[in-house]
Amino acid sequence: FFFTESTETMAIIKSGKVVIVLAGRHAGKKAVVVKTIEDGDDDKRFSHCLVAGIARGPRKVTRGMSKKKVEKRSRTMKPFVKYINVRHVFPTRYVVDMDLKKAVDEADLASAERKVDVKKGLKKIFEDKYLNQKAVTSEKKAAGSNYFFQKLRF
Predict the structure, then answer these.
(1) Angstrom distances, CA of residue 95 to CA of 17, 33, 47, 52, 136
(2) Is-annotated flag, keyword Chloroplast (predicted)?
(3) DSSP H helical ranges for 34-111
(4) Residue 137: is it exposed, middle or buried by C-beta count within 10 angstroms (0-12/13-18/19+)?
(5) Where along the chain do its domains lie?
(6) Residue 93 φ/ψ, nearest 5 degrees
(7) How many CA atoms lie within 13 A of 39 on its CB side?
(8) What is the pTM of this model?
(9) Which one of 95, 99, 105, 152 is separated from 143 by 20 to 30 angstroms, measured CA to CA?
C-alpha cells in the first residue's frame, strides 16, 4: 500500500488554512485556502486549490498613531484570488476563521470585470478582519489571523 503525494497534501490543505504561495507572481505571499479540488477538473487535470491572499499587506502601525491613521494605513491592502496547483503552496500550521466561500464565487472569476468586484469584496473582508483582530473567538484562530497579516520574514 503506497500513498501518493497529492493525497497526503490534500488532507492538510483544507479551507481556512493559511498557506504560503511558492511559485509564480505571488510567490512568498500568504493566502487562505477557499476551496480544494482534489482530482482536478476538465481544464486543470491536477489537484489544485482556490486561494485568496494578500498581494500587498497593511503598513506598519505603532501605538502612538491615531485611530484615523491606523485605519488609513490598513487600507493599503491589496488582495489576490487564483487557482494554484497544490504542489505550489506550502501549508502552515495556522487556520483563519474568515468565511470566504460567500465572497469568492467561482463563476465570477471567469470574467475580468467581475473578478475586480470579488477583489473589492475581499479587500473589505480583509480590512475588517485586520482591524477587529481582538474579536476572534478561539486563541488558535486569533494566532492564525495575526500570522496571516504579518509580513513573511525570511
Answers:
(1) 5, 10, 21, 14, 12
(2) yes
(3) 67-74
(4) exposed
(5) 17-149
(6) -85, 0
(7) 0
(8) 0.87
(9) 105
